[in-house]
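Late entry, written up from scratch paper. The run itself happened at the end of the previous shift, but nothing got recorded in the book at the time, so transcribing now.
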Amino acid sequence: MFFIKEIFKSIQGEGFFSGKSAVFVRFTGCNLWNGLVKDRENALCQFCDTDFLGTNGQNGGYYSLNDLLNKIDKIWNQKKLTNNKFIVLTGGEPMLQVNKKLVESLKKRGYFVSVETNGTIQFDIDFDWVCVSPKQRTKWKVISGDELKVIFPQQAFDLNMLKKLNFKYFFLQPMDNNKKQINIWNTINYCKSHKPWFPSFQLHKSLNIS
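Output as recorded:
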């Protein structure tokens, strides 16, 4: 059984696939924060901007494997998206629930399967694309993949060391807080002079796309 906050179609607003049509499956729960505002100060991740509590989002609920696959197909086909079937498994922390059977089943149905993870849970699953977004107060275990996306700034991270990890692409994403504009310009300026870092902006927020 999968506990799902929401399933929706949109564009990928961040990182390498920014602008690409996708179906997003947001899994309930995270191992770095319980999602309650009153507990944020003591959480391992203190800047999350996502509601991953409960199952009350769009198409949220409790799903068996087959029911989840069929719901994803229905949403993809309803929206008349391209034949390039792209799915993003996200959260919360999706690796609390995602398993090999789900990923294999999605691939059999023709999906390119991407996962967005905080990297603290090791896995042996053949994703098509792995995006790791580490948090500075955590011990992360997934130190290789396709895309490393670091929310910037996080003072404890040595970006010169991180760029030596086994990832294909490296992104810095401005932290969305009360210093957002300063963070944006600091991100741009850092990336200008520090290869291989590229800026990643939350395109969906800028365009007010859910």
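The longest strand covers residues 2-11.
(Scratch paper discarded after transcription.)
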